[in-house]
Every structure is written in structure tokens, then in C-alpha cells.
Amino acid sequence: MGVRMKEVASRAGVSVKTVSNVVNGYLHVAPTTRERVQQAIDEMGYRPNLSARSLRSGRTGIIAVALPRLDEPYFAELAAAVIEVAEQRGCTVLVDQTDGLREREQVAVAGIRPDLIDGLILSPLALGADDLVSPAAGAPPLVLLGERVSDTGFDHVAIDNVAAARTATDHLLSLGRRRLAAIGGMQAVAAQTARLRLEGFAAALQDAGRTVLPGHVQEVEAFRREDGARAMDRLLDLPEPPDAVYCFSDLLALGALHALHRRGVRVPQDVAVIGTDDIAESRFSTPTLSTVVQDQVEIATLAVEALLHRLDGGHDDAPREHTVGFELRVRESTVAGAR
Amino acid sequence: MGVRMKEVASRAGVSVKTVSNVVNGYLHVAPTTRERVQQAIDEMGYRPNLSARSLRSGRTGIIAVALPRLDEPYFAELAAAVIEVAEQRGCTVLVDQTDGLREREQVAVAGIRPDLIDGLILSPLALGADDLVSPAAGAPPLVLLGERVSDTGFDHVAIDNVAAARTATDHLLSLGRRRLAAIGGMQAVAAQTARLRLEGFAAALQDAGRTVLPGHVQEVEAFRREDGARAMDRLLDLPEPPDAVYCFSDLLALGALHALHRRGVRVPQDVAVIGTDDIAESRFSTPTLSTVVQDQVEIATLAVEALLHRLDGGHDDAPREHTVGFELRVRESTVAGAR
DNA sequence: CGCCTGTGTTCCAACGATGTAAACCGGACA
DNA sequence: TGTCCGGTTTACATCGTTGGAACACAGGCG
């Protein structure tokens, strides 16, 4: 163990509490005392014991972020942003992987190590409204990312998925494509994100006076490359394959690109492809991938600040909804005119 | 806060210590007492307060993993593996991003929140031997990943980079390629990994009776896609461009593929490309990428277990070296015969 | 000159768990 | 009957910190 507050105190010739006051920036400490104490702290390299502090104060300075898997680029980038933002705010981040399993998400909400964590940022995949009805008494504050699971009484940060889906779909229509398909539908009851993107897709088609062709919405098990590739294979096997595909994630889109390439279909000439997320990989794929972006740093910032706000006395404020913007990025996979 | 041990004790009609004994599986507790206490625990949903336990026992059950950036797929996959393995062993994982900066790696070694962490797994980029000479007294045990910084007195998990580089290079030679280039050299003093891979590359060429052609070893700033793309551009601008490229990471290789495609060079017909790491992306790129793999789960397992071993009394054991195997995965980017 | 106010500091009791040493208890043995 | 003994349980101090009450001391006021 390192230096204790007691030792600093005796070196500075004051009591332990005075050292504590200096460390915590308490107001009424004489400048000369403060300086003397600070000097002792620096000389001895004192750093407060967080277990003790947390035992006493109930705060640890640790927040947890629970997400499906860290090896999916979207979540990795999200986690990176959360860690960076949290660090700027003086917090450390503990990462929990839920695998998108309801059970594990429930555990996370109930509080992974409730006494160690000041708050939780959760990116739910499987969790439904039922799981969130009664926040456990001792559970730390919670911020939900992604789609609103329904009115849950928790803070929430999301993009407008319906509008984002419309934007992507409109873009494909603007290229003159007519047989539009979507990859990423999901059966799971709780798959709000997929449902909303599908809703936006269908709405955009309808507004353009078109309808969703049979078989042109492909369901997937998860938003992975292999699911995208398989879905694309199925689309290509249709009697009237699509000439444009909207994918609910970049990974799905990259999988689709892979399948298209394997079968010798040209992108964007034969089939235009657009994704969602703008992960780094999409800027280097062959061809580069058009996509709809949400700003991860903005999401992370809003989430961390929402947590910190609750911790700083905002315990009982009404839950807030934050909606972050999105943006269309056009790259090679949907270049206009290339036909 | 939740239930306290005191309340469980009074409910079971025993002292606090007895509850503690039951919780910690102490031997001499009468079966009937144990059962009564256990029942009280279950009924009240008691869970020990970890801050308090850690204050008293000095253990938190949290290990930290410090790596450059979570949004680089290689490290994301590594972190995912560490978290998974740690969880199986009952530990939670705190993630710290160093950005590969020496200063931040030093901070990590000195102990990010030393009292909160039982041990640290560090994947150093910039850290040299000097930074590791004198383990701070209070600092938690440390396991180094990747190249041995030199004899540092710490446990270490790595692959044999020289052998891996030889394997990759030999593979390119076996295709009949003659003008081999490497992407990934680094100037930084501490860039051991780059140096060793370069060493293996050069040795393999020499054994085949060839030498490294001028300009055929491209330096990079970091192992990112954009660095790979730029390096590939420079190689293609040479009077005698290479017909095969060994990249020190998959990201570099993917960047190189991107540059090759942009300039209309065919892979593998005109230039064969091989990477290192086997990140998921490499299995879906166009063309799919050949690579040399190390087993991330094995690395993570060895690292976590090395830490736990130290914690379980192995404090003063001699530092151990673990070398994990690697394997060549041949994909489209180096298909033999395609010329 | 004593009283009050406000500032700066100290003392003491927590926070919730665990290690230590001592107490308890019934039975075995002398 | 008394002592000893092992297993079982308890009381108490303790980990390092912070909150609150208490205290000391100055200056301003009546």
C-alpha cells in the first residue's frame, strides 16, 4: 500500500481531517496551511485510497458501460468514446459484455457490483420494457443508449432511427433505383432499433409511391458481417433481385459487399449499398461504403453527462431524452450515375 | 445501499463475524448455523459491500487492462477476450486507453487507481525498459503483452514475432514472388514488435538468397489503415514496385489493399498481400486477406492466469515468459498460382 | 470587558467488512 | 470432580477516509 493520509498529516503538522479538506477542496482552509499540506502530499506522492473513500462517501468514480460485444467495431468505437469522455470528467470505466443476452443485460441493470459503480450506461439489445419497470432500490443510475425501450423512467440517448432510415432510403431512391431491399429486420420482440429502421424504410418507399417487394426485407440474427453476407445471398437468389440495399448496420453492409463481390455483382453499378454507423472499416472497404452516421462522441458525452448530473444531486429529476443528430455520408457504394 | 451483514446477522441470531465466516467459506461453522445464516442471506438478498471488503482485505476483484485504443480491432478483440476470461474467473475488468503514449503508459504502470486494482495487463507500445526498472512499492502485479521490452522482471505473454514474420515471408516466397516489400517499420526506440517482425522478414529473405531491395521497407507512424494505404502508395511509386507485401498488421494490409484497388492493381495477380493478426475484418475484405494469427483467447487466458497466480501468493515467483503459438491463414490475397 | 460571529482546525464516530484473541461449550480423560 | 481440548462462536480493534460536532481564536459590537 502507499502513503496514508495520516502520514501526510503528521508531516504537515496538521490533523488528518485538514488533509482531507485540502484534498477535497473544502473552502475554509487557510492558504498557508493548504500550501503546506499540498507540499507534503506532493513530496510523499500521496494518493487517496479509493476503497476507503468510497466506503465512506458512497462514490467510487467508476462508471460501467454494458454493451453486447467489444469486438464489434460499432461498440468498440462507442466504448472508446465513453472511456475518453469519462476520463476527461475524472471517471474510470468498467466494461461489461452482455452478448446481447437478456439475462446478462438484466444482471447489468440490477447492478454489476452495485457498491463499486456510480452509474451504468447500457446499450440494450434484448431488454424489454418489463425488465426496467422497477429500478431496484440500491441500483445506481442508468442511462440507456440506442432505442427507447418504451417509457422507462430512465435517461436515454438515441438517434432518430426512423428519420435516419428515411434519409438512407431516399438517397437510394434519388439514384434512380427502384427495387429496394433492406437487410436487418429482426423478429425479437425487443428489437426496437431494427423495427424503427424498417418503419423508416417502408415509409420512405410509400412516400415515393412504391411498396416493399416480397422477400425484399431480409431478417438477420444479429448485425454481423456473416448475417449480412447470408442475407445478400438470399436476395440475389430472388427472381427479381434488388438494385439497391439498405443495411441496418455497416457490418451487415460489409458482409453484403463481400457476398456481392463473391458472386461477381458490381457495386454500385448493379446494386447500390448503404449502411448505418460509419465504422472506420467502411472508409476502406472495396468499394468504400456509403452510410448514415451518428456522432459517437456526442452520444458518449451526453450519456456520461447525464449520469454525472444524476450523481450531482439530480437524483429525482424527470428522465431526459437526448436525441443526437445523424448525417448521410456518400461514398463509392452509392455513387450516382455509375450504372 | 443494500442489506448489511449486521442485519443478516441479527436475523439469523448470530454475530456479524459468523456471517462473514459463512460468506467466505470458513471451515469451522456448524452445519446448522451455516444453513440458518445462508437462509437469511438468501431471503434478504444480501451481497457483500466490495468497497468495505477491499478496504479490509486489499483485494477488489478488479483487474485493469491498458491498451492503446479500443477502436482498433486488434485491441478490441483482445479486450473482449480478456473481459470474457476474467469474468469466468470472477473478476471485473477496467479498461484504460493509453493512445500508445509513453506518458500514459507510465501512468498505467504506476497504477491507475492503485487501491482499486488487483493487477494490470498492459499492452505497451511506447514504453521502454527504463520505464519498468523499479516497480513501485505499492503497485499491483503487472503482465506485459506483446514484445518483451527487455528483461524487466515482469510476467510476459507474447508470440514469437521473428518466427511469425519468417512464416509470412516464406509464404510469399513460396508463391514465386521475388520483389518483396514490408510495411510497418517504425523508428521509435521502443517499437520492439516492428523491429522483430522486420528482423524475421530480412532473415527469411536472406535465407532464400535475396536481399531487401531499397525502399522496400516502408515505415509507418502507427498500425492503421491510412498508414498502410500511404505506404502502399509510396511502394507503387517506386521504379520497381513490389510483387508481394508483408504487412505488420491486418489494418496496414487492409489499407494497402484499399490503395491497390484505388490504383487498379490486382491482388493477388499483380501484388500478393499478407497481414498479421487475423482480425474479423480480414475474413470479409475484398479480396479476403491472408494473415498470420495469434490466438487472442490463449493470450488473454495466459495473461489473466498469470495475474491471478501472483495474487494467490505467487508474489515473489520469478517472472515467467509465456509464448503463444501462431498460425498461417491463407486466403485470396495470396492465392498461389493466380498470376 | 464580555458576547457573538465567523473562520480554521481538531476530535470522534461512523462506513461495512475481516483478523485476532479470547470466550464458550460439551465431551474425553485423568 | 476437575482439567484439558477441539470445535464453534463472539467481542473488539482495525482498514483509510469523511461528516459533523466541538473547539480555539480572532475581530466587531454593545
TrEMBL record, chains A, B:
<dbReference type="Pfam" id="PF00356">
    <property type="entry name" value="LacI"/>
</dbReference>
<dbReference type="GO" id="GO:0000976">
    <property type="term" value="F:transcription cis-regulatory region binding"/>
</dbReference>
<keyword id="KW-0804">Transcription</keyword>
<dbReference type="InterPro" id="IPR046335">
    <property type="entry name" value="LacI/GalR-like_sensor"/>
</dbReference>
<feature type="domain" description="HTH lacI-type">
    <location>
        <begin position="3"/>
        <end position="57"/>
    </location>
</feature>
<dbReference type="InterPro" id="IPR000843">
    <property type="entry name" value="HTH_LacI"/>
</dbReference>
<protein>
    <submittedName>
        <fullName>Transcriptional regulator, LacI family</fullName>
    </submittedName>
</protein>
<dbReference type="Pfam" id="PF13377">
    <property type="entry name" value="Peripla_BP_3"/>
</dbReference>
<dbReference type="InterPro" id="IPR010982">
    <property type="entry name" value="Lambda_DNA-bd_dom_sf"/>
</dbReference>
<dbReference type="InterPro" id="IPR028082">
    <property type="entry name" value="Peripla_BP_I"/>
</dbReference>
<dbReference type="GO" id="GO:0003700">
    <property type="term" value="F:DNA-binding transcription factor activity"/>
</dbReference>
<keyword id="KW-0238">DNA-binding</keyword>
<keyword id="KW-0805">Transcription regulation</keyword>
